[in-house]
Amino acid sequence: MTxxxxxxxxxxxxxxxxxxxxxxxxxxxxxxxxxxxxESREQITALVQSIRDIRSELLxxxxxxxxxxxxxxxxxxxxxPMQLLGQRLSEGAVGAESLLQNAGWLMASELLACGIDFSFxxxxxxxxxQCEVIADRSFSDNPELATxxxxxxxxxxxxxxxxxxxxxxxxxxxxxxxxxxxxxFDDRSMEEIQCRDLVPFRKxxxxxxxxxPAHIVFPNIDENAVGFSPFWLQQVLRTELQFNGVIFxxxxxxxxxxxxxxxxxxxxxxxxxxxxxxxxxNHREGALEVLDYLSSADVVPSSRLASMAGKAKVNWDNLVNxxxxxxxxxxLNALLN
Length: 337
Fold this sequence. Notes:
- 39% of the residues lie in helices and 12% in strands.
- It has twelve helices and ten strands.
- The chain has an eight-stranded parallel beta sheet, covered by helices on one side. Strands 4-5 form a two-stranded antiparallel ribbon.
- Helix 4 (96-112) packs across helix 12 (323-336).
């Protein structure tokens, strides 16, 4: 069954009557959770099941990167910032590679055990402290090291049965501005981007299952923000990098996306540029506007989206009693304490 091109969010810990109607809309293809949707592992598992009972095929996801971007905390393993794991790798610490892979496996396994298909991870931005909104979410400010670390982490995710999403194409690490609050402009040349920010995306193009573009304008390269740009998504990502996976827009309610106009305009531009699915979060009126637009637009659902579904069923009790989980959980905790 094909999935609609809209991913939206929910208000609370259980489904409201209005949200049940939204989930039944064929143009909705996915649900993303936030911290407000989480109270406990048992509650989030029950919420997932209530969604599956209505439409079992919907993609259900969350941002569970680690560090400050980890929506589920109580009852879940605390995942360190990726920069911390990247530093261990750069220092040649004993067991750094295995811990990176095990961290990817553990993060993915815990979500899969709750019925969640995927986390929007890993961050492939090349940064250390230049961009406040990225910073320690990045593995490294060295593109080669960031690529190596991300590759190992992705292997762990894949081993668990979870698809990996690289973000934020072609790189958010070179700007100061936060695209949640404004549209960042990056004046660098294509040559500069290719030598630095694009390295992880180019080298991992065949390992990634999905990519999320940034709401950034590179005025010396293309006039459109990346997520609304056929140049970036079709020419660079699809043709030059030969990426064949899913393209998710970043959240269209972010201020960085406002350059494209209304929610209907943003959706039209994102889908025309090459996105397979658009995200509208924390703005129900915007999501309803998108559904209105999709009801009259001639949009062909993407067959790629089904590839993001979780590829393994994981039993929580078996997971947390396994030697691998116990040792990885202990190592990650020790790294944070």
